[in-house]
Design brief:
Helix content: 55-70%
Number of strands: 8
Structural class: mainly alpha
Oligomer: single chain
Shape: globular
Strand order of the largest sheet: 4-3-8
Length: about 600
């Protein structure tokens, strides 16, 4: 009896603990996506394109790291660290296959506000000039990176807290016009911050509201102090970069490897500056000394956290919004899914952990994602390979960048922002689809220009909520009791294959799609009753067009019934709809009749439940 009880106890014990271990493994795979794709990595097919992409990405990471560190008011070497550690963390926790995390212009601008406010240049004259034990840098430089690291740490903590609270689902308030306007306005700020290097001018640090206008007012007042040599070199660099990148884009299908024009320009300009002593002869500003190696980790100064709360929230929100937009765009382009909450965790840890290694705030950047697209990267292995080359720069090549002219570095940054700046072209489509979205775009951009990226983002979200509340009384609501009156069941029989389709109006404000596998060897049809769509915006039209295109790719005919004239006009403008077949009908019965006549069905029974 004792043995039987012991055996029964062991069975119960195993039943209690086995599910828990399986649940833990499933949780690990969910929270560490690298455990999902790494074991199935195809070396033969993916290693070569990932290696090429990693090399090209490393060039972007190094140049942007140096420039965005200066933009963040810290020593350039800390930008190299910010291009290394966040990329490694995101590769383990992130879900975007073509998202390269590193230094980011918008978060650098926000953290610069805290750095200049807490450790201004005037402090440099008051501090001792003795070098610290960290890379031989001065106390002033270490105080500045301490503030930037504190902003990164607190911003990451906020993102992790948002992950714990599952706030990723709140991203539906971040509509495409709001994100587009905010990123365009922030890119305009970054270009403005690089004007002093492009023109070779000495411009004092200016912060606060209307900074954009004060900077250009200062430039025009002191236009005589522009260095002609820096201006000509900037114009030459921008021209070469734009032309070569356009040619790379034009012939990307014919050439296997694109020309790394950024790397070529860096090497050529640095060599020319060294040989001609441009720094002394013409007074050109150069990057300067880049120390070798990585210092041991150190915790950010916790006593300044309370003073950087505003900047930390800005870094957390702006960095996450911009990064999530790139991840979702990548997922949509390459047909995989991205979890909004998991991205919060990935970017949060990419800010918290690197802050112990003297890193400035990080996020994904459109320029780096474009590089991964153009070089046909397959997985996050490309980002890990780029980290190897960034390490090579940190330990060996870094000191050779001493002679890199700042005007050339600024030119690379400005051209890299082209993807954000050309979003001005979106205004035309917003005007044609939904003029309210056009108004939100313009007002969000103006607020971003006049104040800051986080203020513009907050204004755009508030406008979106206000528009939703204002439109809500116009929406048609369906009573659960009478919903069957709005339903149709269409039963079709073709070659012994039977399919039932439920047709009902789309709900206002959102669109949910339940996809089912169509019957084999049958031409399927889908009818959407749009009588419940009393209003729509650009995102809603995009969703409808996306559903239409996905169904079309799967050989499913889509018909839309009860569409308003404005919805028909917006959909025709937005997407390449099939012009040969009619897709808009006055009623559901008309759409069914069209399907019946086109397919020449032998029998179509229409059954309604009331």
């Amino acid at each position: 009896m004792t043995g039987a009880k012991r055996k029964k106890k062991n069975v119960l014990w195993s039943k209690m603990h086995t599910p828990h271990w399986e649940d833990f493994k499933q949780w690990c795979r969910k929270r560490l996506p690298i455990l999902e794709w790494a074991p199935h990595y195809n070396l033969k097919e993916n290693l070569l394109p990932d290696t090429v992409s990693g090399i090209m990405l490393a060039v972007q990471q190094v140049t942007q790291g140096l420039a965005f560190a200066i933009l963040s008011s810290v020593h350039p070497v800390f930008g190299l660290y910010g291009s290394l550690f966040p990329a490694i963390i995101y590769a383990m926790f992130g879900m975007g296959h073509h998202v390269a995390t590193g230094t980011f212009a918008l978060t650098s601008l926000i953290s610069a506000n805290a750095v200049e406010r807490l450790v201004p240049l005037s402090v440099q004259n008051l501090t001792t000039q003795s070098n610290t034990s960290v890379l031989g840098l001065s106390d002033f430089e270490m105080q500045r990176i301490g503030v930037a690291a504190a902003v990164s740490f607190l911003g990451g903590v906020i993102q992790v807290a948002m992950f714990v609270l599952q706030l990723g689902s709140a991203t539906f308030l971040l509509t495409e016009p709001v994100i587009s306007a905010m990123t365009t306005g922030a890119a305009t700020h970054v270009v403005t911050s690089q004007v002093k290097y492009l023109l070779g001018m000495k411009i004092p640090y200016i912060s606060g509201p209307l900074t954009f206008f004060y900077i250009y007012a200062y430039v025009f007042e002191n236009i005589k102090s522009v260095r002609l040599e820096a201006l000509l070199l900037s114009l030459l660099s921008i021209t070469v970069l734009v032309l070569v990148k356009e040619l790379n884009e034009q012939f990307k299908r014919k050439i296997k490897v694109v020309l790394p024009v950024d790397l070529v320009l860096i090497i050529a300009s640095s060599f020319a500056c060294y040989c001609t002593s441009m720094e002394k002869t013409y007074g050109l500003e150069v990057v300067g000394h880049i120390p070798k190696g990585i210092p041991p980790p150190r915790a950010p100064p916790m006593h300044v956290l309370s003073a950087v709360i505003t900047e930390a929230f800005g870094v957390a929100l702006v960095g996450y919004v911009a990064s999530l937009a790139l991840a979702q765009g990548s997922a949509k382009k390459f047909k995989y899914s991205v979890d909004d909450n998991q991205e919060l965790l990935a970017h949060g840890l990419s800010n918290v952990i690197p802050s112990f290694f003297f890193c400035i705030p990080s996020a994904a950047a459109m320029g780096r994602t474009a590089v991964l697209y153009s070089t046909r990267a397959k997985t996050q292995v490309a980002c890990l390979i780029s980290c190897i080359f960034v390490l090579l720069v940190i330990y060996a090549i870094g000191p050779l960048l001493y002679w890199l002219p700042m005007c050339v570095l600024a030119s690379i940054i400005v051209v890299g922002l082209k993807g954000m700046l050309i979003q001005f072209r979106d205004l035309k489509k917003y005007w044609n689809v939904d003029k309210i979205d056009w108004g939100i775009w313009v007002s969000t951009y103006v607020f971003t220009i006049c104040f800051a990226a986080n203020v513009g983002l907050l204004f755009g979200v508030v406008c979106t909520i206000a528009i939703m509340i204002a439109r809500f009384p116009r929406a048609k609501t369906l009573s659960i009791k009478n919903i069957k009156e709005m339903e149709f069941k269409v039963k079709t029989e073709v070659d012994g294959c039977e399919q039932n389709t439920l047709l009902s109006p789309l709900s206002n404000g959102n669109c949910s799609e339940e996809a089912s596998q169509p019957c084999q060897n049958e031409k399927c049809s889908l009818i959407l009753d749009c009588s419940g769509l009393t209003f729509f915006d650009y995102s809603g039209v995009s969703m409808l067009v996306e559903v239409y295109m996905d169904c079309k790719n799967q050989s499913v005919d889509v018909s839309l019934a009860h569409c308003t004239a404005s919805l028909i006009k917006a959909m025709k403008y937005h997407g390449n709809l099939d012009s040969e077949k009619p897709i808009f009908f006055e009623s559901v019965s008309a759409a069914i009749s069209n399907i019946h006549s086109n397919k020449n069905l032998s029998k179509l029974s229409d059954h309604s439940e009331v």
